[in-house]
Predict the 3D structure of the following.
Amino acid sequence: MALNRDYIGRTFPPSEPYEVSRVKIREFADAIGDDNPIYRDQEAAKAAGHPDVIAPPTFPIVVSLLSPALEDPGLGLNFSMVVHGEQRFEYTRPLRAGDVITCVTTITEIKSLAGNEKMSVETDIKTVEGEPVCKTHNVIVERGA
Amino acid sequence: MTANVKYADVEVGTEIPARTFAVDRADLVRYAGASGDFNPIHWRESVAKAVGLPNVIAHGMYTMAQGGRYVTDWVGDPGAVVDYGVRFSSPVVVPDEGGATLEISGKVEKKLDDNKVVVALTARSEGQKVLTRAKAVVKLA
């Protein structure tokens, strides 16, 4: 189904603040099979120059999936037909335990591509104090029925 | 940030040793829980097949995470990764029995200013390229 082109350029209100916890970082690191001590051990993280344990580079997907943008019924996205096209994380600094972050999501492009709908989304992740942490670029493809 | 690899020690073309990662259905269930992506195409064969997939497929983000781990294991400090992007070119099909394997290799593609390098990654499963344009920018020591 065609996505609503009126949503091109739309920026959604900031997501609810999300507190990055050591436990969630460890759970995520376990789930990707990564035993790096800098995800688990504060001392190891400090020895590497971080104030606390940091999150794996792909961790922000956890928060960007909470974005209200994709669930907006007006957009017309059929989740069962969605596949992930592209993903990128651009860091200002590592995301770490104790950060309280919000996401501001913008739909930058929607277009038809070989019978599929392709949508590009940018998410700006900042701490609640306004410090930029990471920008994510996400392309999802809704396959044609 | 304390990368284990020195900028002066790498050149364009320096190869990172290739590695193989195993992925099975339990890994996908665990990843679904940790990431919050519960799309059933990653754990229910009937649903995956009903939407035209050959079988259950891995989360693209799970595959991307393995590429990330490959880079962060090389560099030591995951905080050294300042940019990481991929295109998902083909799904990683994960059968019920035996699971699948991911073969990841990489090399230094470019040296940038400020001790940064671009690492280009290749990821294959069952001979298919599953990631393309996979690149990480890493700040070395």
Observations:
- Chain B is about 25% helix and 35% strand.
- Residues 108 and 119 of chain B are 5 Å apart (CA to CA).
